[in-house]
Amino acid sequence: MKYEREIKTAFKVSIPVMMGYAVLGFAFGLLLVSFDYPWYLAPIMSLFIYAGALQFVAINFFNLKAGYVDIAIATWFINIRQSFYGLSLLKRFKKTGKLKPYLIFGLTDETYALLTTIKDDEQLKKRWYYFFLTAFNQSYWFLGCTFGAIIGSNIEFNTAGLEFSLTALFVVLCIEQYKSLQNITPFIVGGIASVFSLIFIPSDKMLIVSIVVALILMFTFRRKIEQ
Amino acid sequence: MSGIEIYIAIAIMAVVNFFTRVFPFLFFRKNELPSYVVFIEKFFPAVIMTILIVYSVKDVDFSLAPYGLKEIGGILFTAILHIIFKNYLISIFAGTIFYMTLVQYL
Known about the structure:
The complex is a heterodimer of chains A (227) and B (106). Chain A is an all-alpha fold. Chain A has one domain. Chain A has helices at residues 4-34, 41-48, 52-64, 68-78, 82-85, 100-105, 109-117, 126-151, 164-181, 185-200, 206-220, 222-226. In chain A, helix 1 (4-34) runs parallel beside helix 3, helix 1 (4-34) runs antiparallel to helix 9 and helix 10 (185-200) runs antiparallel to helix 11. Chain A is globular. Chain B is extended, with a radius of gyration of 20 Å. Chain B has helices at residues 3-27, 35-56, 69-85, 88-105. The interface between A and B is large, with 89 and 65 residues.
């Protein structure tokens, strides 16, 4: 099979995201149909929007009959952090050709985290490896959302705590980042910024405030970080 | 909302969401990146990963018993496993099961 190696590696790397996305997507599907919206909005939204927090908030938009301008502005603020993600990938994505629009479209928190942390295997055709990794992740989200909406309301099992797999993924990626950077300062910056926001900022704005505070700290202590 | 309104709302979210993702690729096309972009490129992943750990437990109430100790325990357990075994599947699976056990049986 063409690209077999790329597909296998991408699949292996994507497994932790599978658990997280399947569960979160499932929860989203459940929530959506619980307000009597048709189930097929779940696959449509996970195909064309493909953003975790935003899709949950979207259900609120529907319920509140939010204005289109409000929706646009809220969407922008909810996901503005993603504008910083691309900065770290400009070089990596440079030679990805016709796959680039999809790679950019699929740049979720988790896909970004994997792409920037996992070491590139020189044997792999990178752009296809990136493509399969992104596509695997979206397919987990798509299946989770769709199954949640179709059959979610009919089965019962205790998934309490399963969402921790995403936290665990970030912990592991953090340790891997430290191994390659060998510099503790950026982690302290991220820790201070996020704990500050956790304490003082309402939770729906916590992420964007953390990022702004972290950027201010990063540029204030730029010399120290670059040493 | 109903019918067509929902589809317009979904289209708006899809477009704006894609715009946030494509933004840096539209505005930084030159070969020579400015030094502040190189700086962000190198160090921002470590910063955001730390932030995402805290963000992912943001709905925990740290002022009520058990004061977020289950989440902190789960994070430490995962980190220790990862430092010892260096295998991210073991760390994530075992870390999640450890946390689920804490949440469901304590």
